[in-house]
Design a protein that fits this description.
Blueprint lengths: L5 H13 L2 H8 L5 H4 L3 H31 L3 H8 L5 H5 L6 E6 L5 E5 L2 H17 L2 H18 L2
Helix pairs in contact: 1-2, 1-4, 4-7
Length: 155
C-alpha cells in the first residue's frame, strides 16, 4: 500500500474534524477529488486510526479533568470572595476549574458553587472498574448475545 501524501493526511484530519468532504477538501487545500478520496481503503483506514487516537485522547482528558475536580485546590476561589478590587490580571491567573457557578447578589455578595467532588470520584471509580473488568469488544458481544437470546425466547 502506498504512503499517504501530506494533503491526503490533511484531508483525513479535516474530514474527521469537520465531518464534511467539502470542508475536508478546503482544510487539505485541494479544490476537488474528496469524493474519490473518501472511497479509498487507505484513506478510510487513516480516518479510523485518527478517530481511535482522538477517542483515546478524549478519554484521557476526561479522566484528567475528573481527577482535577475531585482533588483540586479551592484556594483561588475562596480568595475571590474576599477580593476588593477585581484585577483582570489576577483573575486570569486564578485556578477556578472546580467552580461551576459564580453569582453576585443584589447586595454585592458573591456566591460560588463548586462541582461535586464525590460525583467526580464516583465517575473515576466507575470508569476504572469498567476498564479493568471488560473490553469494548466483550461488552458489545455480551449485549448482542442477550439481545439475540431475548429475540429467540420471544421476550
Amino acid at each position: 500500500m502506498k504512503k499517504l501524501t501530506k494533503k491526503e493526511k490533511a484531508f483525513c484530519r479535516g474530514f474527521l474534524e469537520k465531518g464534511s468532504i467539502a470542508e475536508a477538501e478546503s482544510y487539505a487545500g485541494i479544490s476537488k477529488g474528496g469524493s474519490e478520496l473518501i472511497c479509498r481503503d487507505d484513506i478510510l483506514e487513516e480516518i479510523e486510526r485518527l478517530s481511535q487516537l482522538q477517542n483515546k485522547s478524549l478519554k484521557q482528558r476526561a479522566r484528567s479533568g475528573l481527577m482535577r475536580l475531585a482533588t483540586g485546590n479551592i484556594a483561588d476561589a475562596v480568595s475571590l470572595i474576599s477580593m476588593k478590587d477585581y484585577d483582570s490580571e489576577k483573575l486570569k491567573n486564578m485556578d477556578l476549574f472546580m467552580v461551576s457557578e459564580i453569582k453576585r447578589s443584589e447586595k454585592g455578595q458573591i456566591e460560588i458553587k463548586f462541582f461535586d467532588r464525590f460525583k467526580a470520584l464516583e465517575k473515576l471509580s466507575d470508569d476504572c472498574e469498567t476498564s479493568e473488568n471488560s473490553t469494548p469488544f466483550y461488552d458489545a458481544l455480551m449485549i448482542g448475545a442477550k439481545t439475540l437470546e431475548r429475540e429467540t425466547n420471544g421476550d
